[in-house]
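User: Run a structure prediction on this.
Assistant: Running it now.
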Amino acid sequence: MAGLAAAAARAAPEQDDPCCALCGRRLGQRVERHHSVPKSEGGTTTVPVHPICHRTIHAFVANHALASSYATMDQLREREDIRQYLRWIAGKPPDFRAPTRRRKA
């Protein structure tokens, strides 16, 4: 049981940072961990994000581009497509869900 408790503690959002690393809204019941540099590119550092924010990141930006050009949330927020998404999601509740279309170039 200790292994499950440890895994749950690692997956739980940090009390110090109850906000999504991308949109800044409070985190809801479901929290995902986004690898700033994808695991496939050797990344290990993660940040807490809403599931919809996580899907949006990967819908707009390919893993190789995340590793080379968008390794920080600030760099992602500079993209026009992400800025449009952030304006749209800003007023939504923490557990808001909607389909995410793939838009990678």
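The radius of gyration is 14 Å.
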